[in-house]
């Protein structure tokens, strides 16, 4: 019998989890497994705010894909996916083409700017390792340049963060620790630095427990963050941003604008003609794209409805990894033509939002946590993700053990 070709696109949480689980389940002679990713490394997207602020080196947030795949079973292709042609079971890459019997699309998230003028051109977004490195370098450049100019431009030292959601708050938590270091390093008066967070919703961290939100906002304000809640970014310009609260319009001059208020699924989803909302496909209970029984979609490119609230689950690494496990099981069923497909049901264990390396807030197994206890849990969550993909050796290499 011909060995089926299984092609997995993307080596983020969803794609890599699918790959490492599948390589354990099937033998060399049962399937040809190909994993495609644009880099030869995997990065922990959930740590990118640290690399962006410069509190964690970017090499700490990534590891070689070769370290976790079994090369006797998985063929790794370093390339960029251009589009999928699902009617012909083909994937078009920048440098070639692949055909498949079963496909997993796990190409993750991209920044969503909702058409706000100038954001794409002038704002940064915490999207991947390259973007994180650029944000860190850009902020450092502003501090390094400040004292070299005869006429000091204080706005160089203003950093605007668009969005007080999960990513925005985690990034602010790192920034407030990084800025004092930068001030010392470049002889900058800390009073000249402004960190402003602009959020259109009526609260920071919409949907989070209000007591925990208050804890986070108070802590960040104490460390110098100015919140502009209920305020929308109308435009981003080379000089900063224009915001509006009701009828009041204000220009904020800033050397750095980081947009952290929206993500969408990969543009490849739209290019490939899948029915989607902002690059996210509403998958069937077995994680398949409607109309294509051999195409699975996991992670941020998929959309799953929470039946209790009748709203989509927010895209998270937690869900992407759980989907990867189920997807691998379902692929094994199809490869062997034995057994039954398993429906996917998210098992949400909790959410922890970091506020720098030593503080956090969260709800874990239904209990509220904050402070150093929450921070400890956050590191445990981060280490667990490493463990699930690469076992204890990956945790030893890349894990977070600075618990104090
Ligand atoms: P990703 O992890 O984004 O991986 C996609 C992979 O595909 C990447 O390797 C990428 O290089 C590759 N790729 C993309 N396009 C192409 C292409 N065209 N060709 C080839 N390869 C391509 N979630 C949580 O659960 N908890 C958290 O605490 C948390 N914190 C976060 C903090 C930050 C700063 C951010 C940005 C996100 C956070 N998230 C968190 C969300 C989480 O990171 C995402 O939900 C998760 O990464 C989605 O996993 P994925 O497998 O779908 O995609």
Automatic annotation (TrEMBL):
What's the protein name?
A: NADH dehydrogenase
Q: Which residues form the FAD/NAD(P)-binding domain?
A: 5-324
Q: What high-level taxonomic lineage is stated for the organism? A: Bacteria, Bacillati, Bacillota, Bacilli, Bacillales
Does the keyword Oxidoreductase belong to this entry?
yes
One Pfam family per UniProt:
Pyr_redox_2
Q: Name the protein family.
A: Belongs to the NADH dehydrogenase family.
Record-level GO BP terms: aerobic electron transport chain
A molecular-function term among this protein's GO annotations = NAD(P)H dehydrogenase (quinone) activity
Among its keywords, does the record have Kinase? no
Q: Which UniProt keywords apply?
A: FAD, Flavoprotein, Oxidoreductase
Q: Which EC number applies?
A: 1.6.99.3
User: Cofactors per UniProt?
Assistant: FAD
